[in-house]
Amino acid sequence: MAGVLIIAEAGVNHNGDMAMAYRLIDAAVEAKVDWVKFQTFKAEKLVSPDAQKADYQVKNTANENETQFQMLKKLELSHEQHEQLIAYCKEKNIRFFSTAFDLDSLEYLAQIGLDYVKIPSGEITNLPYLRKAAQLFRKIILSTGMSTMDEIKAAAEVFTQAGISRENITVLHCNTEYPTPMSDVNLKAMPEIQRELGVSIGYSDHTLGIEVPVAAVALGATIIEKHFTLDRTLPGPDHAASLEPGELKAMVQAIRNIEQAIAGSGSKEPSASELKNIAIARKSIVAGRNIVKGEILSEENITVKRPGTGISPMKWDEVVGSIAQRDFAAGEQIETGN
Q1: In this predicted model, what pLDDT tens digit does every residue of 219-265 receive, in sequence order?
Q2: Dihedrals φ, ψ of 182, to 5°?
Q3: Domains and CATH numbers, the chain
């Protein structure tokens, strides 16, 4: 991957409406993200019929009587719909991606040619799922919301034991609360994951706003994943914690700016763009008043002023106590004749 890979997570924010899904792809293209990601699942394979929704899902769907199964069933994408979205992504020249939430969906995504698999946070302790993913894919993106370091290591070990190199594993730091409170982000865990596992790192963000994923890039994230929606006020589990199109575009631009800002050599030296400003911004030793030839230069008759084209004030101690070699008008740069 060249540069930070930015994944715009459409997820289930299409609300089961293909016209909305197409518009989400259009928004991702407009924002200039790298990949647009959906979710692949069968509600029957994912959740028990009577499983309750998370608190944020109840709040965002405004339906406390609906079960998780009922909610998710309305958000499924059929294989035919997947094919339509893939074709539209090809037409718009953006990479289609999806997360599988069950074994059959893993099989399907492998069949349609995805080279990466994204392991969602909820599956990090699902050993049969992890083994199936390792069999079908050679490149892994692993989300780690709700996880301990030991759980992350255990999941990564499933992949390495299957022969997947650590170079092909990217672990995303993540917090699975929608939206994530800023006090719970804990970005410092991201470089710690890298040190502990020896893998590439990234960040899957559920905070409000764009500043945290931008900060993650500054800390070394190679992949950024962020939910987006056409309208945060739409009903549905994830809209409220998602970026709207203009914000997504701003996040991408900010990340691209930060990429450039951290791409320097690391050696502290003047940049090419600022060399021309050295003489303008720095100062030289000048006459503080009219000085006659033969007068002793002292703190009473010399001072420092811009531009920095004369003797540097760092040589102040060498100049003080020397003899004026000629007359100097007030403000004129001092010359010592040395």
Answers
A1: 999 999 999 999 999 988 889 999 999 999 999 999 999 999 999 89
A2: -55, -35
A3: 5-261 (3.20.20.70), 269-338 (3.90.1210.10)
